Amino acid sequence: MKTIKSLIWNLRIIKETKGQDLIEYALMAGFVAVAAGAIMPNVATSVSTIFSKVGVSLSQAAGQGGS
């Protein structure tokens, strides 16, 4: 029985995947934003402003972190 458990553990058949989808969606959104900015230069400033606001909001939320 121990060998089956070690085989499963070594092959990483059972993995922890919580949060993986969120990161993939965030990366895809970033890629789409960069591509849109490259294709439509007028939109680039709007996208930059939005990401700056999101970054500031995340920084503020991280600073409060559980207080």
Write the layout of secondary structure elements.
Blueprint lengths: L1 H10 L8 H20 L1 H24 L3
Describe the 3D structure:
By secondary structure, this protein is mainly α. The mean pLDDT is 76. 81% of the residues lie in helices and 0% in strands. The protein has helices at 2-11, 20-39, 41-64.
Task: Summarize the structure in short.
Helix content is 81%, strand content 0%.
Structural class, judged by helices and strands?
A: mainly alpha
Beginning-to-end CA distance, first to last residue: 46 Å
Judging from the principal axes of the Cα atoms, what is the shape? elongated
Work out the helicity level.
over 70%
| Beta strands, count | 0
Note the total helix count: 3
Mean pLDDT, all residues = 76
Whole-angstrom Rg: 20 Å
* Main beta-sheet strand count, sense and barrel state: none
Indicate the proportion of strand residues: under 5%
* Helix-strand string: HHH
Low-confidence stretches: none
Which features does this protein show?
67 residues; elongated; mainly alpha
